[in-house]
Amino acid sequence: MVTIRENSKLISTLKQNVEEHEVLKHPWLLKRKNFIELKDLHTWLSQEYFVSVDFVNWFLLASVQATNLEAKIVLVQNIWEELGEGKLENSHVKILEEFLNQIQFNFNNLKLFSGTEKYLQRMKEIIEMGFLESLGALGPANEYLLKLEYGTIAQSYNALKQKLNLPEAKFFQVNLNADESHSKKIFELIEKIAISPEQQQRVIRGNLLALEARILFYEGLPQ
Prior knowledge:
Blueprint: H1 4-19, H2 27-31, H3 38-65, H4 69-82, H5 92-102, H6 114-127, H7 131-164, H8 170-193, H9 197-219
């Protein structure tokens, strides 16, 4: 039987794997850590738009694989919140669309980059490996990772906002709040579900594979 202390160690390991991973040290992110140009913000957010659309599908795929009802509830709650709790205008995709319009992004230029496409496909493959792998991929390597990524870009946006007199970014605040809440719920779920060493290794595997996949996203952006 795995003790609470051992499961807490698992969560610490998952978080550490994210915090120390090369994806957060990618040159694209480091170059824009303190300030980002509007064209780069347009590029990054336009690709995040495709990720945001698929994000809900990943949770749906994971929930189908869950045999534990409590796990299904946690995942469906996340999906419901991502979808604005039934209000289309409050869904994360719509909030992103609104923000892109506010910062003068031309949706006629919306194009799926090859790196983003590879990332989306790889994430789908990881989630289809199994429920435990999907928890590692969706919790630590998405909700927790995105909190760190979005925090960096949000800080850079504040500098750009002052320079160009841009609007407040509801998009960043909504996502940062959601990522904090969602990652906490999934970490708690992992503690309950991943009991045996084999189960824990599967969660870790999903986490590491999804982190490697995220590098494909950044490699596909104009450097």
